[in-house]
Design brief:
Length: 125
Amino acid sequence: MYRMFTETSVSCFSEQSNFQIREFDHSCKTNRLNQEETKLANIKSAKKRVITAEKAAARNKATKSKVKTLTKNVETAIESGDKAKASEALKAATVAIDKAGAKGVFHKKAAARKVSTLAKNVNNM
């Protein structure tokens, strides 16, 4: 929960009175970040960077989601006790995690740590 001491009112805050603690409403769709994103630079390269960053963020989000799904598949196979299914799921997850690490979605060491943990869990079955 964020707490702020400010005089101005923002629509995302439930206001008690000026200079009192106001709590941030996380369900509010418009916050300062969204308000600042609408103010684009006039320079062509800056506009292009905003569009490029949005595309990269969407691509990274999809990759992270895929890795999470494949990781859950491995964990489900481990819980069910099926070693063959778990090792197949581990191969698929390892490929996806390594690609994400190579492309910079995850840090390389974080990717290696994820693969190592999954492999250790499968081997300990």
